[in-house]
Amino acid sequence: MESKKQRAELGWCWWLFVAVFAGLVVIAAFLTLWKDFHFFRSRNSRDHHGTVDKYVDALDIAMQFFDIQKSGKLENNGIEWRGDSGLYDGKEENLDLSKGMYDAGDTMKFGFPMAFTASVLSWGILEYEDHMKKARQLDHARDSLKWITDYLINAHPSENVLYIQVGDPGVDHACWERPEVMTERRPLTQVNESHPGTDIAAETAAAMASASLVFKKVDSSYSKLLLKHAQQLFIFADEYRGHYSKSVPQVQRFYNSSKYEDELLWAASWLYHATEDPMYLNYVTVRNGKAFANWGNPSWFSWDNKLAATQVLLSRVSFFGPEEIPDDEKLGLQMYSKTAEYVMCSILPDSPTKTTKITDGGMLWVDEWNALQYSIATAFLVVIYSDYMHTSKTPTLYCSGKLYNATDLRNFSISQAEYLLGNNPMSMSYLIGYGKNNPQYIHHRGSSIPVNATTGCTDGFMWLNSTDPNPNVAVGAMVGGPFFNETYIDSRNNSMQGEPTTYNSAFLVGLLSGLVTTSSVVKSLK
């Protein structure tokens, strides 16, 4: 039998064991909490490079959608469920149009949004090259841009001919299949002297002119080639005027252009920055400013309307020079700058001249179709303008009696980025791959069909109608987003809300690059 002393010693040991164990549990819990706190803090604060970590992460994710959308012989392919496709595009006209990008969830190559994607991506790189370099995304951005511009160069085989489309939308949209296995005929569509396309030729000129600046220091011969094409296309666009969607009526259901004046101004503005030739500045101010620019009236930046972007881009000239500009052209620039101010004042939530709608959750609202396009495109313009103010040391923006500073503008852009990334009533991140709650059924063929599926054109619709989540996660895709009442219907058939596009990604990459750090923009794009 145990003695009282033995029982006492055993009891003392037992309580010592319990105390030590409890202490270890408390320490472990504390370390876990500290680790979680440190992780959270590091994800939402600046690191030693002066960058905002969560925007760095989001930028890395957003860049991946360009890889998903690539056509052609894929190089260094990092998307395991994507392979070579469109290898024979253009062969019927002895052209190599295998590169380029599919614009959305289908397998069409629409030249209008593709060129616009290149223009916006170029702008983001030019304004925020240092930011992208800090985030280790500069090379990736340049490579993605070049994948498009290689295609655009080949699509412009002579001065007044531009191939604007690969594939037949009717045939393409009658199929639901992976791009790697498509066998349908992919006809080419062009604009030329007898079937002009001012809008698409000018947009392609803008893409090539802006891209020529991106590659000027890293590949001068390629930069010169892009600029040559840009100048030829601008002359073609200006001399043979007409809407491409009237010359080619079958495109009207998809990317119908409402006008072409904005593209002419957009292209000429980029050509001025690329060449510093005063002819282009005269074109946008004295010759066509009053007729084309709609001075004094704010508008929305989108694939179909580049006026607001042109006004912000030309305000760069007013902010940073040169000073020796003729008075009549300087007056035109002042009108662009003033309209850029109107754009900013129409957006700021508490501005006396606000003309925008904001959802209860804080998203800028314009239209229910691809709603986030307008929110993120606008936020991209606003952060650029904010940085113009910051770099030029412009203290305030005056909006009918109320003053705002660069930080006020930047905070608006941050609010739109935060909404997209999950700070919204549904707590949903509309950037696939970022956060824990993403749409699972995006409207995207390659994402929705298993790699080993043997379905073809029409029997592939079983995957469109499947109730299973997409088997291939389209990391980096930015979907269209919620309705005004903050609801989102996660269905593959809901292309209005759930279809990602390359130009959405270009807006987002530009915005996130601007938010990665608060360092100034460059004063010259050259």
Q: Which terms would index this structure?
A:
single chain; 526 residues; two-stranded antiparallel sheet; 21 helices; 52% helix; disordered N terminus
List the topology elements:
Elements: H1 4-43, H2 53-68, E1 109-110, H3 111-127, H4 129-134, H5 138-154, E2 162-166, H6 169-173, E3 188-191, H7 198-214, H8 220-239, H9 244-247, H10 252-255, H11 261-275, H12 278-287, H13 289-292, H14 307-320, H15 327-347, E4 357-358, E5 364-365, H16 371-392, E6 397-399, E7 402-404, H17 406-420, H18 445-448, H19 461-464, H20 495-498, H21 502-515
Antiparallel strand pairs: 1-2, 2-3, 4-5, 6-7
Helix pairs in contact: 2-21, 3-5, 3-7, 3-21, 5-7, 7-8, 7-11, 8-11, 11-12, 11-14, 12-15, 14-15, 14-16, 16-17, 16-21, 17-21
Protein model, in words:
- Helix content is 52%, strand content 4%.
- The protein has 526 residues and is mainly α.
- The chain has one domain: Glycosyltransferase (Alpha/alpha barrel), CATH 1.50.10.
- The strands form three sheets. It has a three-stranded antiparallel beta sheet.
- β4 and β5 form a beta hairpin.
- α11 packs parallel to α14.
- It is globular and about 65 Å long.
* CATH fold call: Glycosyltransferase
What radius of gyration results from the CA coordinates? Answer: 26 Å
Number of strands: 7
Low-confidence stretches: 1-48
Main beta sheet strand tally, sense and closure: 3 strands, antiparallel
Read across the widest sheet, the strand sequence of neighbours is 1-2-3
CATH class: Mainly Alpha
| Level-2 CATH architecture | Alpha/alpha barrel
Task: Give the class from helix and strand content and strand pairing.
Answer: mainly alpha
Oligomer: single chain
Number of folding domains?
A: 1
Helix segment tally: 21
Beta-strand percent range: under 5%
Helix content: 40-55%
Mean pLDDT: 91
Order of helices and strands: HHEHHHEHEHHHHHHHHHEEHEEHHHHH
The outline comes out as globular
Instruction: Please report the distance between the alpha carbons of the first and last residues.
Output: 94 Å
